[in-house]
Fold:
Amino acid sequence: MTVETTGSTNGRPQGVDEVHILWISEGLSCDGDTVSVTAASQPAIEDVVTGLVPGLPTVHLYNKVLSPTLGGEEYLAPFRAAARGELAPFVLVIEGSIPNENINGDGYWTSFGNDERTGEPLTLNWWIDRLAPRAWGVVAIGTCATYGGIHAMAGNPTGAMGLADYLGWDFRSTAGLPIVNVPGCPVQPDNFMETLTWLLYHAAGAAPPPPLDELLRPQWIFGRTVHEGCDRAGYYEQADFAKDYNSPKCQVKIGCWGPVVNCNVPKRGWMGGIGGCPNVGGICIGCTMPGFPDKFMPFMDMPPGASVSSLAAKPYGAFIRRMRGITNGTVNKEPKWRHNKEALTSGYDPRYRP
Structure:
């Protein structure tokens, strides 16, 4: 399913000249997504903020790690203004999973600033309740914010969930946009910046809204599996499987979930096109998926079904590998007519000419 909506009249996007990005990482989180995004290069977050990307609106970024302020009320000022309806348009970025504050007992699970009147901590949920309905767009960054992630695994005491679970999967921003989910643990830096840039071009009226799948992920990023972009996929076809983590061969029998996980990291790399879990010997543990981590544990065990699929591939793969080996040996030899003798033996025969 493709989710395509537009914050416009007559189906045509209405451009804005200025956008504020209110980035709250006070969800249940390690701030790894913020740290990851600092490594982006397509485009770099610095280029977006400083106006070096042509066609984008002026961007004002409020992120605690990247903020030039001293923190405190100076940092909170734009968030408070937006909550009062005095700052627009803005994109709300949520990092970290959303706890269930209805089961917090006498305390709270996570907070962001204090109530100006009482001095009591303001929960993340309080901010989401006030900011999301006023936001031009809402983005969940990282698997914790998109689907709950590590904090939402079985047995957790917080009732943690993803942003769409909290706001509702049918949520729409003031621009008519659904939540944009960019999962990853942490998020692949260019995946997020590319998605954010597309969203900003849409805000400028220069692009349609980004196409999303039924899980609200960017289709062009998460439309293929790890296996389809993996450097090791050819070994799977030939039933040539790694037995340990030092091998360059397919790792499906030592715990890799790549054939069933939607992620582009092996093809895109991690920083500057380099890296990506299977590319550097790491198995895929499904960190971009809604079922992570519970449905992928224990991480180092062979995935269910891998023994059946690898067994089925074995006779075919062994035959193909043998045939390709023979052909490889043949094409690794030069033709016999390449020599320095007096006779021409290439088969050249001009007798057909008149």
